[in-house]
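Entry for NAI complex. Fields follow.
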Amino acid sequence: MNPVKIGILGLGTVGGGTVNVLRRNADEITRRAGREIQVCRASTRDLTRSRICDTTGIALTDDPYEIVSDPDIQIVVETIGGETPARDLVMKALANGKHVVTANKMLIALHGNEIFAAARERGLMVAFEAAVAGGIPIIKTIREGLAGNKVEWLAGIINGTSNFILTEMWEKGRDFADVLQEAQRLGYAEADPTFDIEGVDAAHKLTILASIAFGIPLQFGKVYIEGITGITAADVKYAEALGYRIKLLGIARRTPKGIELRVHPTLIPARRLIANVNGVMNAVLIKGDAVGPTLHYGAGAGAEPTASAVVADIVDVVRTLTSDPENRVPHLAFQPAAISEIPILPIEAIETAYYLRLSAEDKPGVLADVTRILAAHHISIEAVLQKEMPEGESHLPVIMLTQKVTERELNAAVREIEALPTIKGAVKRIRLETLG
Ligand SMILES: NC(=O)C1=CN([C@@H]2O[C@H](COP(=O)(O)OP(=O)(O)OC[C@H]3O[C@@H](n4cnc5c(N)ncnc54)[C@H](O)[C@@H]3O)[C@@H](O)[C@H]2O)C=CC1
Ligand SMILES: N[C@@H](CC=O)C(=O)O
Ligand code: NA
């Protein structure tokens, strides 16, 4: 049988890694797919730049539109990233009858509904395993492996760059900006790294996970997003003293009132496996009603871990080239007509426990005022940590862990605490989840 011909758009970290894995494991991959896979063409913006892969036998172009309209290409692999021109290229590839494999979470989170509809109309596949948690086969796990469950909630460390930064700050006390530069050098970060550190990349991935876990449309605009830029080395140290680690988590939870969708730094008990997921590694904890909690761990970014997912998708597409499109696994796990509009809750309605850090004057009665305000808002305190006065400072750091409270109630209490003359500046708050 003739080889299946593929064209790759973008030969950077992920595109280059994909070529390397396809070449190195060609025999194994052919045995699995049933057909030889041949990368015929690839596009890259700068044809003269050195790259991580050998391009012998691959026709290079700086015009990706040539590839999506090439009648010989059966599968287009999109590893350019971003919205423009990726969206247009993917839509054109589909219009030209090509299956698509993409690593682009932004594209799927923002335009997946439209892209999958176009693919369905033409009986084509759009595979996106690399878009969430890099090399962890999490899309396949939820869509197929957990199909018998009602998913209750999931919580994931789904941005490798920010986990790398938090780990280096926690283990080595390194500077934020310094570690971010290293993540960029290693190819982990997005083209615009603010997406990583401000939680946007994790929110793109959470949008996709929530959709396939609960059978809801992709709704990036409804995710509450808070990144890690406000986390200081002191917060990491205080959390540790209380038995917690701080991780950037994406959380999606089904409640009787609606669905929580949120990305924010979170204190997690240090004894939990997920609290010990460090560096660029990702992990997704999923609670299904039948299976209970399952934890999925692996590299969340980097050339070959991500290529592992891209190549698996290519193999999936090749295997199904001859099968009836109607019988394939639906893009968003649920049958298109069964996708339902369960409401997404606003962040004020969500209940969590909190870590609060305040700067308080060192005199009697100050803590009593704070606890009085918390009690008036029915907020119970789980633990208090009072630190020595830092040198040259006029106020003491006081850390409190609360029990669960709605964000609305906590905001009201924090406003009153911040208005106390004995409290300096803003009260720092980080949400806390026990994930039990
Ligand atoms: N780097 C990683 O570890 C991971 C990246 N991803 C996703 O994979 C995609 C690619 O990321 P990387 O490989 O890291 O990016 P990269 O910057 O290393 O490579 C991008 C490639 O696309 C080409 N390109 C960029 N803009 C273009 C344009 N306007 N027109 C034509 N070509 C263009 C560049 O020349 C380069 O070859 C993104 O969607 C990213 O979010 C997903 C998982 C992990
Ligand atoms: N920038 C992303 C890359 C993988 O999706 C990350 O750091 O996780
Ligand atoms: Na994945």
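NOTE: The mean pLDDT is 95.
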